[in-house]
Amino acid sequence: MSDPTRDLIFPTPVFHEKIWGGRKLADDFGYQIPDGAIGECWAISAHPNGDCPIERGAWAGTHLSELWEQHRELFGGAEGDRFPLLVKIIDARESLSVQVHPDDAYAAEHENGSLGKRECWYVLDADPDTKITIGQRAHDRAELARMIEEGRWGELLNRVPCHAGDFFPIEPGTMHAIEGGTLILETQQSSDVTYRVYDFDRVGADGKPRPLHIEQSLDVVDYDMKAPESGEVTAPEVDGVTELMECPNFVVERVRVSGEKDLEQTWPFLCASVIEGAGTACADAAGQTHEVARGTHFLAPSGCGTLRLSGDMTLIVSRLP
Fold this sequence. Notes:
By secondary structure, this protein is mainly beta. The chain has two domains: 4-220, Jelly Rolls (Sandwich), CATH 2.60.120.10; 237-319, Jelly Rolls. The chain is built from six helices and 20 strands. It has helices at residues 24-27, 64-70, 104-110, 141-149, 153-156, 214-220, and strands at 14-22, 38-44, 46-47, 50-51, 85-92, 98-100, 119-126, 131-136, 157-161, 167-170, 176-177, 182-189, 195-198, 237-238, 241-246, 251-263, 269-283, 289-293, 297-301, 307-319. The strands form five sheets. Strands 14, 15, 16, 17, 18, 19 and 20 form a seven-stranded antiparallel beta sheet that branches. A six-stranded antiparallel beta sheet has the order 1-2-5-12-7-10, with no helix packed on it. It starts with 13 loop residues before the first strand and ends with a strand.
């Protein structure tokens, strides 16, 4: 017997205006976005700054945070006071600020109990000759403070080429910046804590420079981190599945579908984003087939049974480890 409460869950994205944002979320993905420079699509989120409504099915009219709080059985009884993951699409028409995120311990102490922010980027598109900033070259706090004070950004920052299909893990303590002309899918902890190191001397809507967070950044930068030279994916693809990242907070995989493909959903939940192509998705326990295409995001809850995918498409799938 089918169970509609175990069907796939389709959140409605929440959009955020950013001074560096553009219009690709409408032009390339067909989302109905607000006017202005829209930089972020919070596609699967229960964070207070962007709590996704559920658009259809048994849970229509609720928000993802409500499902986490009131129906933990949908998430395999996973523990925690908040839904742990956040999936975004970022449209960087201009470069984002150079920034760094704290780990859980620092964020809990200094940011009102927030989670830290470990994240990763799958590059959906990038203009020719685009680069991306990941890592810095100072050896300790004093050297970093001196290089920031002297504005030695070219010497300090590690920039690498950026191409569609690249993947970049961003550990807490990693100085980083998405540069203009880049479109990425980001999987991260459910946190909105960002320490801004350098903002290219821009001003915000109020005509004033946006705040910097130099002391916090000096606190949290990982001075021993080895900066990457490339984002090329070298992990093997096995039966259409490539593991992109496994860390204490999440596992991220790329799934290619050509024809039919079954994923055994044995995890507390899966987050899925279609990044190319189109097809259908069906959870065995519900028996309902859904049309999906580039820009569709959904959750496969606990107990949904086998996730049956059909079509010609590529997905980024994330879950708890």
